[in-house]
Every structure is written in structure tokens, then in C-alpha cells.
Amino acid sequence: MPKSINISNLDNQTIDRIVEMAWEDRTPFEAIEIQFGLKEKDTIAVMRRYMSTSSFKMWRKRVTTRKTKHLRKRDFTAGRFKSKNQKN
Q1: How far apart are CA 41 and CA 80, in angstroms?
Q2: Phi and psi dihedrals of 59, rounded to 5?
Q3: FRET label pair with 5: which of 22, 35, 49, 74, CA 20 to 30 Å apart?
């Protein structure tokens, strides 16, 4: 089992990008792991450490209700979701 990344060693630009990706509804935790080597628990630790308490709580509430944050729970596997109501 690979070791967790030490989040204390991340530079500001990397932290900003991780936070940005974590906030995006359609960016799964697996994409963050592929790009930065952070497992979901590490991403949560980054968010907890570098966000205000109220922002972190709001983010956690959003993430727990989103199927799109985990590839296993998504209704689609590749590409972008397109609603049937959307124009062709």
C-alpha cells in the first residue's frame, strides 16, 4: 500500500489547484489522485487544513451528495455528461 503524501510539502500553486479540482463537481477524487498522488483522505486533509472551517464544512456537505466525485458512482464513464434536454 503506497504511503500518503505529506501535505506539508506541497507548494502554494499545487494546493490552489487541488482545492480548485476538489470544488469542481465533475472532477472525481481519482483524477486528483492521478495528477497529484493524493488519495481521497489526503485531499480531504488538504481541504481541511487550507480552508476556513465554514468553507470546509460547506464543501464536505456538497461532496457527500455528489455521485460525480467518485468514478464508481458515476452514471457515465467517459466524456462529458450531456442532458437529453440539451440541443444537439
Answers
A1: 26
A2: -65, -45
A3: 74
Residues 69 and 27: their CA atoms lie apart, in Å, by 6
Q: What is the pLDDT of residues 26-43, one digit of tens each?
A: 888 888 999 999 999 999
Cα–Cα–Cα angle for 19, 50, 54, rounded to 5 degrees: 95
pTM of the model: 0.72
Question: Which residue type occupies 66?
Answer: R
Distance of CA 28 to the CA centre of its chain: 5
Q: Residue 67: which of 76, 55, 58 has the closest Cα?
A: 76
CA distance 61 to 54: 11
Give the residue among 23, 85, 82, 26 at the shortest CA–CA distance from 51: 23
Count other C-beta atoms under 10 Å from residue 22's C-beta: 21
- Does the structure show a pLDDT above 70 at 70? no
